[in-house]
Amino acid sequence: MLINTITRQDLTTQTALHLCRVAIDQAEQLGINICITIVCSSGRSLASVAMNNAPLLSQAISHKKAFTAVSFGIPTKEWQTRLAERNNTLLALQSEPDFTFLGGGIPISHQGSVVGAIGVSGGSEQQDIDCATTAINSLS
């Protein structure tokens, strides 16, 4: 019998913690309190941080954003455009407990492969995206 395997790259815990720190720094500059979740390529949580006074639901939402982004390899906000004319698909995906189309979930790629994702929640949608993007850009 032939056994086939694949090699997968993932973010390290240290990278996940770095991303959280940068996102927090950006949130502080914006004057907001956020929650951040970093997941590996399989969707397992590597780091999750809640700033003091962040909205309570933001922790669960940040996880949904990261999980959705890593699951499909696209930013969560893109679902708003992709599903604008597809109400049945939107309704079906919304029934999935870990799916969200709210902006603030962004996949993290390295050498052409998705190695994880970040999800940020607690500010406006654009502020969440800005915090996530600033964190990812700090890796280059």
UniProtKB/TrEMBL annotation:
Matches recorded under InterPro entries:
GlcG_carb_metab_protein, PduO/GlcC-like, PduO/GlcC-like_sf
* Superkingdom to which the source organism belongs: Bacteria
Question: What protein name applies here?
Answer: Uncharacterized conserved protein GlcG, DUF336 family
Q: What is the lineage of its organism?
A: Bacteria, Pseudomonadati, Pseudomonadota, Gammaproteobacteria, Oceanospirillales
